[in-house]
Amino acid sequence: MGSTKLLLVLFCLLLIISSSSAAHKKKMQARKPCKRLVFYFHDIIYNGKNARNATSAIVSAPAWGNRTLLSGKSHFGDVVVFDDPITLDNNLHSTPIGRAQGFYLYDKKETFTAWLGFSFVFNSTAHKGSINFAGADPLMNKTRDISVIGGTGDFFMARGIATLMTDAFEGEVYFRLCVDIKLYECW
Question: Using CA atoms, how far apart are residues 55 and 57, in angstroms rounded to an integer?
């Protein structure tokens, strides 16, 4: 009789454990963003001749490089600081709604890639505050995702993903990024 009770207790425990683990195996549902925004930012790198129009500059370079021209084919070791206009469309001359402010550094010798840390600082009536971004940017990919790691004002404590797409590229002087922001935590 003692072994029957033990088997019954073990069976009940097994039943409880299996039912609780089945509840945790629910399929993860794709979340919809609570806010979606698309902006363009325009980067004009200083090349020694365009100080008046430049919105970014090389502030550090490896020993074999210089701070006027990007070094080598992968630009490895260059650190660039920027203060770029943000627009609602891909026209550089459109009214800016804010500034993209931060830095990027070229972090691989073999491949053209960078690491970004920057904020969108808004100055429009439609948006107040900032959105902060960080992450790796494998530049040769058509689309790249970086993390939205916070924000202020209208974007207080925002979290999500920003998909970057190079919209235009003119040598080593100008590029334009389309930034598709999907926020999954909105306060």
Answer: 7
Q: Is 132 helix (H, G, I), strand (E, B) or coil?
A: strand
Whether residue 97 contacts residue 124, with contact meaning beta carbons closer than 8 Å, is answered with: yes
Q: For the chain, 187 residues long, give each residue's pLDDT as a single digit of tens.
A: 566 666 566 555 555 555 554 445 556 567 899 999 999 999 999 988 999 999 999 888 777 776 666 655 657 778 999 999 999 999 999 999 999 999 999 887 777 789 999 999 998 889 999 999 999 998 889 999 999 999 999 999 999 999 999 999 888 789 999 999 999 998 8
User: Which two tokens mark 61?
Assistant: 């370079």
Give the DSSP letter string of 5-40: HHHHHHHHHHHHHHHHHHHHTPPPPPPPPSEEEEEE
The secondary structure of 136-170 as a DSSP string is EE-TTSSEEEEEEEEEEETTTT-EEEEEEEEEEEE
Give backbone dihedrals phi and psi of 101, rounded to 5 degrees, phi first. Answer: -125, 125
| Interatomic CA distance for residues 84 and 55, integer angstroms | 5
User: Which of 139, 147, 134 is CA-nearest to residue 106?
Assistant: 139
Cβ contact 161:179 at 8 Å:
no
